[in-house]
Amino acid sequence: MKKNSSLIAVILILIAAGLVSAFFYFDRQNAISAVILKLGWSGTILAVFLMALLCMTPVPSETLLMMYLKIYGVIWGAVLSWLGSIVSALIIFFIARQYGQDLMRKVITPERFEIVNGWVERKGTVGLFVARLLPLPAFAVNYIAGIIPSIRLWPYLWTAAISIIPYYVGTALLFMGITMKTWYWLLLGGIGVGAFWAASYLLNRKKFVLDHRR
User: Fold this and answer.
1) Taking the CB of residue 89, how many other CB atoms lie within 10 A of it?
2) Residue 32 and residue 180: Cα distance in Å, rounded?
3) pLDDT category, 196, cuts 50, 70, 90?
């Protein structure tokens, strides 16, 4: 079952990457972007909810983030993506509270649950924030955190909102560097994303060491 889930996730990621590549190819003259922008506020709201839906799946949100950066510009593209991730976290919280363990057995591996639960047990809200910085899919951490009874809505929500900002900012800077062919934006974005993943690796390493000391 786990292999089938991994295969489905890989297929979805490849399809998403293909769609994004096709979008950038056919939108070289901004024709598609112009049509979407003409939708006004309805298009903006739709963009937020599309990101929310994507963030509830294993498909990386960067695929849609890159499209939003192209359509709405760097600042608004990042803001809409960020809002979508928050809406997603909020929806997942209530779904997890409603369906609990039955849901977890279907979408989350026991190993991932133990990682997040371990940090929360040791450090509380700070532990949840740290868990969100680990190299785990954001949707998985949201489902797990929503299931844990000791986690309340506000700590759940603010840790989700803050933890994603560095990565989205780094991705936006990388996008600026590539599209504007400006090396310093590319460098800043690379440093930002690299620092985020380095922090994830070190925190994951610390967790590994603590587990082996028990």
Assistant:
1) 26
2) 20
3) low
